[in-house]
Design goal:
By secondary structure, the chain is α/β, with parallel strands linked by helices. It has nine helices and nine strands.
Length: 238
Amino acid sequence: MSVTVCVSLYNYADYIRETLDSLLEQTLEAFDLAIIDDASSDASAEITCDWLKKNAERFERILLVRHDRNSGGPSAPRNTAIASSDTPFIFSLDADNTLYPRCLERCLEVIEDTGAEMVYPLIEKFGAETGILGNQNWSAEILARGNYIDNMALIRRTALEAVNGYSYMWLYGWEDFDLWCKFVEQDFQGVLVPEILARYRVHPKSLLQAHTKSRARSVTEEILERHPWLTIDLEAIT
């Protein structure tokens, strides 16, 4: 199969079922599913196991891995999912977000047509905030001023392997931005799929709400140290 959806899960018992249900409706007929539970302390693992028992036949291959201890950020479960899969394309999905039915099929069409290393759809925010994410074309110049591309993207395995996957960050929240920066440094190309194909849930525990905003200066200092070509104005961040 061509695509593995890699789901990172940590204490999202309230949301994981809805996230997985959105995969049942995908118009792409055949794809794999890898779920990595990062040592959840709630009922996430139990809910996931029950769901998989009922819906395993929808997927070509399923995998559920549970970390012995929480890794302190999304990089480790995402990398575990990538390492556990064997398809040429990876779609990364956090366990509180959902996909519209045509998401995987359209992203696969575009990445195969363009030869890009990654493609990303327009994303609809819902919950505590509304709006659209990722509504700009791939541009190193725009990325230099700050991230605008979410982690929900279809990525070539070869590209992920070339940059050693997701890097651990001391203060998590910008692992996807760091990955795109590494792609820029490799002259990899991304392509916007100009359709709303995914949904980003904004809530108190989401990365957008809980970490990037409350620790913006510290996270920015770390990303600037990793990628000095970025032009983010640190002094403008309070």
